[in-house]
Amino acid sequence: MLLTVLYLIAITAEAMTGALSAGRRGMDWFGVALIACITALGGGSVRDMLLGHYPLTWVKHPEYLVLTTFAALVTVFIAPLMRHLRSLFLVLDAMGLVAFTLIGCQIALDMGHGPLIAAVSGVITGVFGGILRDIFCNDVPLIFRRELYASVSFACAWCFLGCAYLGLGNEQSLLISLFGGLLFRLLSIRYHWEMPKFVYRDDPQG
Amino acid sequence: MLLTVLYLIAITAEAMTGALSAGRRGMDWFGVALIACITALGGGSVRDMLLGHYPLTWVKHPEYLVLTTFAALVTVFIAPLMRHLRSLFLVLDAMGLVAFTLIGCQIALDMGHGPLIAAVSGVITGVFGGILRDIFCNDVPLIFRRELYASVSFACAWCFLGCAYLGLGNEQSLLISLFGGLLFRLLSIRYHWEMPKFVYRDDPQG
Amino acid sequence: MLLTVLYLIAITAEAMTGALSAGRRGMDWFGVALIACITALGGGSVRDMLLGHYPLTWVKHPEYLVLTTFAALVTVFIAPLMRHLRSLFLVLDAMGLVAFTLIGCQIALDMGHGPLIAAVSGVITGVFGGILRDIFCNDVPLIFRRELYASVSFACAWCFLGCAYLGLGNEQSLLISLFGGLLFRLLSIRYHWEMPKFVYRDDPQG
Fold this sequence. Notes:
By secondary structure, the first copy, chain A, is mainly alpha-helical. Chain A has helices at 2-24, 29-51, 57-60, 63-82, 86-110, 115-136, 150-165, 170-190. Chain A has eight helices and no strands. In chain A, α1 (2-24) packs across α2 (29-51) and α1 (2-24) packs across α4. The longest helix of chain A has 25 residues, at 86-110. Chain A is globular. The mean pLDDT of chain A is 88.
């Protein structure tokens, strides 16, 4: 199934970005593996705990833990190469974001939730891995400052829900929102699209 | 029902304080909405996940997500006014703290837990929204340093449990602890009551 | 039962280290008690929420909350003495790590999970209390930088699983991995054993 293949690519790519974040903080190999697993599998775990959807994905498929840990350790060794693979990673990361989002939507719908909760479930699956990575590395989560990322996830979720509402088959809806989301994310990187920011100071003279 | 009305006022007020925190970090609109939802609904979500009380409030009532997101976006536009509304917000926030606490107590009691777990459930509901907000904004949680806040929540929970123990009706117990807690919080702000602090240094010469 | 006794010693010791961390940040007494409870009981709570193992330990045994809170408040008063007890605390902390790990393993096995999830459950129980403590105090989790800590937990879990696989009785397996893990941890402190670190810089000239 297409989504499973995309999911495996996505958790591998996310694990590698997590490992690089851990490397920026000079963590040891255990920390690298843990941050990689959290980045790759954390979004889905948060979704499952919020929705009460047990067992969690990695508990049911412990081989995913092996895959993400392996990807993390590979990253340690090929780190000097990573600088040259930035564009590849941006594409893989975009694919991951969209795949996570659609899987999150699908799971909430399968549990019988309405469209709003399905969209929220998609966004949580898509973005919480990165948020947890940043919290564990003690950064202000990047997602709140970067180009459209969560918004792509949100739009992609609604595109999928809209297609389903219009009576398109599940496979067609997935493909349309997959390519739509991917295109939207890559365009937003290319042209530095950003959401308006809200800057507030307590002291008006500050 | 009184508690529901207070709850709606409370999540709106908490969402607005969350949005201001996000604004202090210069987050984009998505970050503002997310931090607002976490501040308003995070305490209850943590409680429900710890107690295994599914579905979570906002999953059952997705309209609360709409309300908190809407409150966050309104805050972005009326931010310059917020400076003049500080006292109003302190009162709303105090009301929210007390309402959250009593709801948390009530839910734990309804699940059949004893008084200690009910009090803990009340305090978690009351204070974890703010703690999560500060962690997501990468601050040391404010609550650990400010005037009596968690202590008000704790006292309010025990007041409610005490009233129930003395055989007062549910409605009466709620009203007494509601006003007692509100008064306690406002007095503690007014007179800068604080808990003693524990300051520890590893190095005695430090 | 041996594990229960070790568990009680472990949560007391962990609560005291949590209280000292809170004191380093100058938190008030409520913050001290909260950080102590999170340090002592957080690892098990995260494990139970991830595995869907309800009710949580402290919900079933609220007296553990009383014990950890009490240990935290005692710490506030005997803090000046703590400097002289460092070696004692390192031993107690090592015992706690090993006891938490074995309990986490055992619970996952009792739920019918395979060895990989059991080992992960052990490590989560062993190390997440300290990770949460550091996140709540707004530090980069120490565990990612210190001598072998998580690795001891991991090795101890596999030792236990290996003994069980070899057909040893539950009690024997526990004792062997308990002493093995304790010895491994104390040796790693004594000789400053460390895992290799992964240091990554985005900018090669940086």
